[in-house]
Specification:
The chain is 29% helix and 19% strand. It is of the alpha+beta class and 476 residues long.
Length: 476
């Protein structure tokens, strides 16, 4: 905008400091200094000749006024200096009037500008700023319930959505420095280009806060990696969907849960980050149940499955497994079915506990199947203490589980109702690994009470269509 040369003041009547400096503004005017005053809430205040109504706050927005009163000196249409609030020495220096405000206190803080009030700031940015939503706008009829409107158009996962108004999308995009038009990739099954803006829209609908957005973006980037095979995961008749595990400082910064009820409800960040990914697959990629999503049963985790890892243990974290440092925030994406509990309240040494967990892992998919799926084992704190006190590392614990899960081939024969199965290895008595190399992942999390751990089976297809865990760094 073009600024008039001279002095510009921005004030509002509903500010004691602005009322205090009214005679000062009159004195500036009487000293023949060019003065333009913009009033945010009352066009008749203050009593000066050049008082302009700024109730729509356009001028305040373009001048980036955060506090009133603000006094600005302009020359050649450009701002040269500004003073915020009332500080007698600074006002005198800016105006060149040595006795300005002689009878006033030396200092008084100002008040918040109307242009930065919650709700108003976002509306001004949309109305007067550079923010423009590229996505199609949909006008909801005034008498229609906007939440029901979302249900009726098939945008929901079965739970109520937060309507993605322009203001809410703008707020969400403040959570990242990345451009709204940036394309992250193509979302299956329809291979639709996914922009940061589209991620933000679905994050709004999922109930995310803006500070969650970088985590959601990193989660989507991991899901779109070919190694994760999102299209195959979506189209399989298997039970599973994506599972997100978060590491690093961001866990605490956004209030994630890695303790009691870690795999359950009750934490906003855990619940909405995973839900945002699922909504993106549905609303951008077109992956809807009984259409492209061909899961025979599915699982409750297909609504959302996201949690943080407990990093207050001696074990290497998932982020470190992925090649990152502990002070870097990361997401790791797995394929995941429902949760299978491991209840062992008797084992007090690592070997016995390994036997116990391995016996439970034998039943993943089917006790007579091997190398059919991956699995994540979430080691609870009390089970973890057994390994820690014996100085067992994550690597040693994982290797011991793999060793206990070498199964004689004849024990894996799964026959039909007509004839017994005949595996090539059965006759030779060879051992078959229950899980492929790298197919077991150990994580630390859970509540402090209870000698429990949790097994989360995953999904694996042989050959180039298999799914591998993917770790991505979270960027602001």
């Amino acid at each position: 905008m073009i600024l008039p040369d001279g002095l510009i003041a921005v004030v509002k009547r509903d500010c004691p400091t602005c009322v205090l400096v009214e005679p000062v503004l009159q004195a500036i005017e009487n000293a023949n200094h060019p003065l333009t005053v913009y009033a945010q809430d009352d066009a008749n205040f203050p009593a000066v000749k050049q008082c302009i109504d700024d109730i729509d706050l356009e001028v305040s927005f373009h001048l980036k006024v955060e506090t009133v009163p603000t006094l600005i000196r302009v020359a050649g249409g450009r701002e040269q200096a500004r003073v915020v609030g009332w500080e007698r020495g600074e006002w005198r220096a800016l105006t060149g009037i040595d006795d300005l405000g002689e009878n006033l206190p030396a200092y008084r803080p100002g008040c918040g500008s109307r242009s930065v009030e919650p709700g108003i700031a976002e509306q001004l940015a949309i109305r007067y700023g550079d923010f423009h939503v590229a996505s199609r706008r949909i006008d909801v009829p005034p008498l229609e319930d906007d939440i029901e409107y979302c249900f009726e158009r098939g945008w929901s996962d079965g739970l109520p959505l937060v309507p993605p108004t322009e203001v809410r999308v703008y707020r969400m995009l403040q959570g990242t420095h990345r451009a709204p038009a940036e394309v992250l990739g193509e979302v299956p099954p329809n291979l639709v280009p996914l922009t940061i803006e589209k991620v933000a829209i679905n994050a709004v609908m999922a109930g995310c806060k803006p500070e969650y957005l970088p985590v959601v973006i990193a989660t989507v980037e991991a899901a779109l990696e070919p190694a994760f095979c999102l299209h195959g995961l979506l189209a399989t008749t298997w039970f599973c969907g994506p599972m997100v595990v978060v590491n690093g400082p961001v866990r605490e910064a956004i209030g994630m849960n890695w303790q009691g009820n870690v795999l359950g409800q009750g934490n906003r960040a855990n619940a909405t980050i995973g839900r945002a990914l699922q909504l993106i697959v549905r609303n951008v990629g077109g992956g809807r149940p009984q259409e492209a999503d061909q899961s025979t049963f599915g699982s409750p985790g297909k609504l959302t499955f996201c949690f943080a890892e407990d990093e207050d243990t001696p074990w290497q974290t998932l982020g470190e497994d992925g090649g990152f440092d502990r002070d870097q925030s990361t997401v790791t994406l797995f394929t995941a079915d429902g949760v299978q509990g491991v209840v062992d309240q008797k084992s007090r040494e690592p070997g016995a506990l390994i036997d116990s967990i391995a016996a439970s892992l034998r039943t993943v998919d089917h006790i007579n199947m091997a190398n059919a799926a991956d699995a994540v084992v979430v080691i609870g704190p009390e089970h973890g203490r057994v390994f820690d006190e014996a100085l067992w590392s994550k690597a040693k614990t994982t290797a011991a589980l793999h060793e206990r899960l070498q199964i004689p081939g004849q024990d894996l024969a799964m026959g039909t109702d007509k004839s017994p199965a005949a595996l090539p290895v059965a006759a030779s008595g060879a051992l078959v690994p229950k899980f492929r190399a790298g197919g077991l992942q150990l994580i630390r999390a859970g509540g402090k009470a209870g000698l429990f751990s949790a097994i989360i089976p995953g999904w694996l297809m042989k050959g180039p269509l298999g799914s591998d865990p993917v770790t991505k760094e979270i960027h602001a």
